[in-house]
Amino acid sequence: MNKRKLSFWEIWNMSFGFLGIQFGFALQGGFMSRIFQTLGADKDAIPYLWIAAPLTGLLVQPIIGYLSDRTWSVRWGRRRPYFLIGAILSSIALFLVPHSPVLWVAAGFLWILDASINISMEPFRALVADKLPDSQRSYGFVTQTLIIGIGTWVASNLPWMVSQLGVSDAAPVGVIPMSVKVAFAIGAFVFLISILYTVFTTTEYPPEDMAEFELEKKKKNQFIPDILNNIGNMPTTMKKLGLVQFFSWFAFFTMWSLANPALTEHVFDTPAPVEANFNMEQPASATAFNVANTAFQKSSNEVGRYMGYYGLSSMAFALLLTFYTSKKRINRKFVHLGSLLLGGVGFISMYFIPSPIWLMGSFILVGFAWGSILSMPYAMLSSSVDPKKMGVIMGIFNMFIVIPQIIAALGGVNFAYKLIGEQTINAMIVAGISLIIAAACNLLITNKDAITYIPKVTE
């Protein structure tokens, strides 16, 4: 199919729903560990509690990719029904998460939230490949990254912003502060509205061969064989990109799960108070706990605010690439390699910074890596696979995102950082080393179409 080139605003509209998706991911990534700690979780148990995120991705994304490849509605298209279903479920879960009364309820809501976000997210990746000609793929994925950057920065700042407006950070033992509850409610609203915007402003191409498409839909019990067949026949470039993704996502899972305990302890010197260390029946001891807990909650707001800078820098990075790739070709491999190296330096620098303000620079460097991770691997992949299987391929590619996170959650992060020392801040050093390894793995990619798209004379 000859696909026409889309304008910036058409690409913007089809990508805008990612603003809401990233509100969900940023609130989850920046504040779930804080919620777990507030409800009494030990910091070494936090990665285990995060197992929901990668497991739901592993299960949900290939299924949704497979189903969306086989969906077509004249009114709703192929991918948009999944955007909408995921948005409704995600918005409900986002609103309820900070109202969790106990730890196991919060962990359960994380399962629901992450599964729901994945229902919306996977088809968005496939939509770019569906709608855009190959010459605009980098442009499309980078535009998505621009919107993701905006979402990351705003959502990461929400609890701090709400607190600045006078909403309290203080709360009784085991209760999530009102500032976090209000921030998650705002996130739920933005999630739903942004998805609705994309659903109602974007159209989709019908299947190229409708007769063949209908025949394919009628085949029974093909899901598992098709998935296994596509895994077994995975292109070499996809395998190499998978290695890059493995170390990249190990690093970012480490940040999401342990940045809050690591930085509140090492940089702000306000670790989460452990209730067992205080005699809550004595007024003085109870007051000391409340003071320490409020200090922890406020420094957690600050950690979230500084983490927002990685969204801001990824946005700037994406904006630069958006304008550049709209006119010229880029070497995707070396852009990705350099960006991951900068992110690795950013993580490692967190150990050495003399005061919290320096976290701004650390997370800005991390943002360059994040901006590239969200665009370059997908642009390289989409130029080297069968477009008819784009949904299921994108879902399978997600294995290289979730498997490293599962390994990290099941003790990989704790094991790796404790090889350096007992301090939680060492987890950020592990994240930095992991990104540097990911950068080096880019040198394995040799497929010319994946590295740099060269327009054909007939296009």
UniProtKB/TrEMBL annotation:
**Transport among keywords:** yes
The principal location of this protein is membrane
One CC-aspect GO term: membrane
Give the InterPro entries listed for this entry: MFS, MFS_trans_sf
What membrane topology is annotated for this entry? Multi-pass membrane protein
What SUPFAM superfamilies does UniProt report for this protein, alphabetically? MFS general substrate transporter (SSF103473)
Where does this one sit in the cell? Answer: Membrane
A Pfam entry, by short name = MFS_1
- Indicate yes or no for the key word Hydrolase: no
Query: Which ranges does the record mark as transmembrane?
Result: 12-36, 48-68, 80-97, 103-121, 141-162, 182-200, 241-259, 306-325, 334-353, 359-380, 392-413, 425-445
Q: Which UniProt keywords apply?
A: Membrane, Transmembrane, Transmembrane helix, Transport
According to the UniProt entry, its GO molecular function terms are: transmembrane transporter activity
Superkingdom, natural source? Bacteria
Q: Which PANTHER family match?
A: SOLUTE CARRIER FAMILY 45 MEMBER 3 ISOFORM X1, SUGAR TRANSPORTER
Please state what the protein is called: Maltose/moltooligosaccharide transporter
